[in-house]
Amino acid sequence: MQKSNHQSNGFNYILRLYLSGILCYFSFRILLLIQEWDLLDSIPQDERFVLMLKSLFMGFRFDTVISGYILAIPFLIVSAFHILDLSFKKLQKPLLFFTSTLYVLSFLICGIDISYFGQFFTRLSISAFAWLDQADFVLSMVFEDITTWWITLAFLLISGTFIWINNRLAKRYLIASPAKISKNSKHYLISIASFLVGGGLIFLGIRGRVEAKSPIRVGTAFFSNYPFPNKLGLNPNFTLIKSWLSSKDKRQEKVAYLPEEEAIENMQSFFNASDYENTISPIARQINFPDSLAKKHNIVVVIMESMSATKMGRFGNPNNLTPFLDKLSQESYFFNDFYTTGIHTFSGMYGTLMSLPTLKRQHPFKGADVLSYSGIANTLKRHDYETIYFTTHDDQFDNIGGTLRANGYDRIVSERDYPKAEVKTTLGVPDDYMFRFSVPILNEMKKPFLSVFMTTSDHVPYFVPPYFEPKQTEKNFQIVEYADWSIEQFIESCQKEEWFDNTVFVFLADHGGALNVRYELPLNFHHSPLLIYAPSILAPKEYSMISSQLDVFPTVMGLLKLPYMNNTMGVDLLKSKRPYAVLNNDDKFGVLSEDKLLIVRDAENKSLYQRGEFDNIYETHKVEADSMEQFAKSLFQATQWLVDSKKTGLPE
Q: Domain end: 248, 279, 297, which one?
């Protein structure tokens, strides 16, 4: 038999093994597709073929991630043997055992996933181990079902075939040991170049994406408006590992403030929601209006990056940074005591669009499970709205795009949709370009629409376009001026369109900034403007009651007078009074009443302040502080229960 070139033997083995593994993963995906063939009926026939091709290509990307992790160590060893010009014969058995074991284990997970998906319509995650203490019962139940036997046979066939191929590849590329070659400069140059190219490809494969903003995530697979092709593209090894890592991450530690039953009862009492047996969750309440009052206005929500209230002249800023927002606030429903739920963009998105608070350091969009929420998009979809989300940059950052696609958004417009020449920083296109780009798209809407925008200009790296002339000299002031000007351009463009008079615009921040810090929990990091602007629909009015991001969705629904199920922690500010606003600040939380601020760091470390004053009055106002703390802990704990129980959505 002719011997292969020693310089390429190891790399040939790795490459061919990768292709064999991809083919095996593809086989499991086809088997899952065959099992769930009836689900294709949920996809329009004219879109079915293209979507399935996209799903299979997405599967190739996720399969490559898993293969990259399996082959990374073998690649490093092979590279070292190349550089040192050592015989690969010594590698045959160790590499054969290592790669066969890991691949077969991954195939086992793929096989288990087929059965799991058929039962739960979700890819395998750590949730599958909830029954580990009853494994004998579960396994008996599985194997007693004759319809699962074919999965076992498929696993054995695919695994056996892979092991046979692996043995053949090892014999061909590793067992032969050509004569040594002289280790000259050419040898080292070729070996190092091979290492760099191969290593770069494996790194790219593991990362799953070329975009600098974020590696591949579960949400990356959610490319369509149909759940089955989205979920088909995932690799169950990826979802299982992702869910396990999330469970071990201290930042994802679950809250355990109160017994769940007590927390739920407290929130039921607050929401007057006691009809649990007829709804999807203990806090869900059906909100009805007379049919004659229903108005299907368009809704445009603009979530402004870092727009703390203190940046506005309306709240006393002397630098005239937001002349347009100040003017707009005089023409709107204006809520002057409004607060964001957290200090991160994902908290602002979660609080505004899903009306739920983030919990401790948990990231609600990065778990292995993409939950369904009874937020504004899913609710308006039931009233035949079109829905769209605009962002300036990569929609996979924070897993926003995937979560929104799974929660009622028909279309996501992000960096990949804009001309490359318009992308100026890692945050994508400037705000005003995103707004300009959006108007022709909104003009094409055939139904009432919900359009959500996430601006980013007021976030480093700052970019002030050369065509905008700021009045300030400091960059952090200039960018606020620019953000305000961008909104002005957007409104002026919308005013020229026919749909403007039938549109309600909602402006708020994702969060504020640590400006003029006076408390350990900076209030300016949470204090945001909330403007609801619809000059043909709403007469200007100012509201001074305490309000929260959680309330945006119910308040909008109250304006539309459309019936809906409110399965959130928000209230309609035009009908109900919120006693407290709860603020998540990662390692501590705050509770605001109309005149006080409570800061809770841990069980022994708490402070209570009269708003605007700095003496800790906790000991002298302990009863009031306890009431505030009890409300916040009940809200957090009840939310944790909703998430864990997967009862955050709407009734089927």
A: 248
